[in-house]
Amino acid sequence: MIKLPDALSTRFEILVNTIPDSLARLHEALLPELCVTCLAPDARKGLCNGCRGDLPVNDRCCARCGLPLLLARPGRERTCGDCIKLEPAYHRAFIPWRYEFPVDRMISRYKYQGQRHYGRPLLSEMALLVDELLTRQPDRRPQLLVAAPMHRKRQRKRGFNQAAEIAEAISRQTDIPWSDRLLQRPRSARPQSGLNRKQRLSNLKGLFELHGGVPRHVALVDDVVTTGATVGTLATLLQQHGAERIEVWALARTPARVNRSEQALHDVAGDRQAGGQPG
Ligand SMILES: [Zn+2]
Ligand SMILES: [Zn+2]
Which of 10, 65, 102, 208 has fewest C-beta within 10 Å? Predict the structure, then answer.
């Protein structure tokens, strides 16, 4: 797994990020693909088999919100206490990984440091996993993939909206149309760091707008679900405008036991590097 000294890894990343796309494609065609986490030369879509096998799979989780329930028995469908107490506006979640090493590092480099090659393996794997899910459970196929919106100013600064890129990757694999226009975020919130779920919810009030008609069955796509406040707020808005069945599809879910400390770190990193806040 990840044994390479950080300095060497960083120099390699700078090199990879500074070569133009055409050269990168030539490089990919001529040379073996390297694993983004350990630089092993036998990678497939950016990850070697060892690192792929080490990803923290979120297979024991709440069926409703994707919260990891590590003590639950695998294969049994469970609902967490939070979802029993207060049913979220969305009906099912599909979140294949826990927000833990190395997925946390890959997402944060992809998102906050603009190192797109760290996101690619997760995006392509996510698209395949969704395709498999829909083959097993065709009734979960939505009419539209709706990307969680990002404030325009922040998107300009970052250069991309990662939720839109994930939706696009899933759309390419499944032929389900996607939109990053239906939900928009014209206003920015004060930083979410240090706020609990309830405070986050009130901080997010009135922040999002809907532009266009909402199909009956949609999947809301985001990168990381932390407390669920953001996807909950977005799902409520979609529901108020006609969505009857809402799925939440995201790459990773923060386990409850690390929510507070992890969140503080995540927020600090996000606020410092991009002026943003995950939800
Ligand atoms: Zn590897
Ligand atoms: Zn739950």
Answer: 10
